[in-house]
Amino acid sequence: RGTMTVGETAKLLHKDASEVIKKLISMGVMATINQELDIDTILLLAAEFGVEVEVKIPVEEDRFETVEEVDNEADLKERPPVVTIMGHVDHGKTTLLDAIRSTNVTSGEAGGITQHIGAYQVEINNKKITFLDTPGHEAFTLMRARGAQITDITIIVVAADDGVMPQTVEAISHAKAAGVPIIVAVNKIDKPDADPDRVKQELTEYELVPEEWGGDTIFVNVSAKQRMGLEELLEMILLVAEVNEFKANPNKRARGTVIEAELDKGRGPVARVLVQHGTLKVGDAFVAGNCFGRVRAMVNDKGRRLKEAGPSTPVEITGLTEVPQAGDPFMVFEDERKARSIAEKRAITQRQSELGSNTRVTLDDLFKHI
Ligand code: GTP
Ligand code: MG
């Protein structure tokens, strides 16, 4: 129910009820010991007393926080893999992303105006691949910070003329920590001083051993600039996806992650979202971080208006009341009222964590008995 009596609050704050009542009166709240206080008031009290509290929202009241429901195997359908590109500065990440995007325009969608929506899809052999534009490091940091997994496969770009560098190693450890399969793209093979074998040799030190040397890491030689090896790279991504059997249930309410968001002068808050489970539809009520809204319009990376978007589809949506943050979880609810109440609860939790205090007493069981 999200409330506690004055007496219960006093106990959890390690104060006498009379002290709490006095404090409440000084805050303009007339209270008795059995009076119920709402979360906001309890948080204010805690701040007044310099005590840090942690709000645990009861699980049954907030599906947003619950462990995701398990899908039946039969409901799971193949979905496009979501790929990020990581690598050392100047090794060609942006050039590679741009080259893949421009060489591969899905027939039927040709002529569409490319939109920057934080991610894009390409199609090869009638299968789609989703690429995240977000620099890999940022995507991974976000993922880890929010506990969300948005990438299925990581491509580590290593310039063949430069070899393994500090951020290459960092990228490898990010991908390994997240348990994401790695494909190595040895880039700039067009350069006269390119030495792809040296890159392979150097990477064995990080347990990335090519198949021809008895390992199981896929290496592809590419030139992002000359557009060489791109098709092979895409095929290898599909191969890894096939082996890993990335699946999702498209027949439920959508859930995903905000990739980017901003305030657009004309359209108001705009969010670019990667749908990860279920299908997002125009008109759906949703929560993104602690913002809520109703999908007014939805556009894909080719600037095409969509009525619905299934798993692994990046879309740009309007219809939010505020601007969420990149990395925020996104989830559809049965109606706007529910979405609003969840968003408000999340806002309270955030406000609470922002109420800095001197004494670091964590009352993590604040609502244990509610
Ligand atoms: P940061 O975003 O700064 O980390 O760099 P990046 O990894 O995105 O590299 P970017 O794509 O900006 O490429 C860096 C430089 O390398 C640019 O001048 C590119 O033109 C060049 N470059 C990228 N790929 C190739 C390639 O395959 N061959 C050659 N010769 N040059 C390349
Ligand atoms: Mg770049």
TrEMBL record:
Location relative to the cell: Cytoplasm
TM helices/strands, residue ranges: none
Sequence ranges assigned to domain Tr-type G in this UniProt record: 78-245
UniProt-annotated binding residues for GTP: 87-94, 133-137, 187-190
Domain of life per record: Bacteria
Region (G-domain): 81-229
Functional description taken from the UniProt entry: One of the essential components for the initiation of protein synthesis. Protects formylmethionyl-tRNA from spontaneous hydrolysis and promotes its binding to the 30S ribosomal subunits. Also involved in the hydrolysis of GTP during the formation of the 70S ribosomal complex.
Family per record: Belongs to the TRAFAC class translation factor GTPase superfamily. Classic translation factor GTPase family. IF-2 subfamily.
Protein name: Translation initiation factor IF-2
Gene coding for it: infB
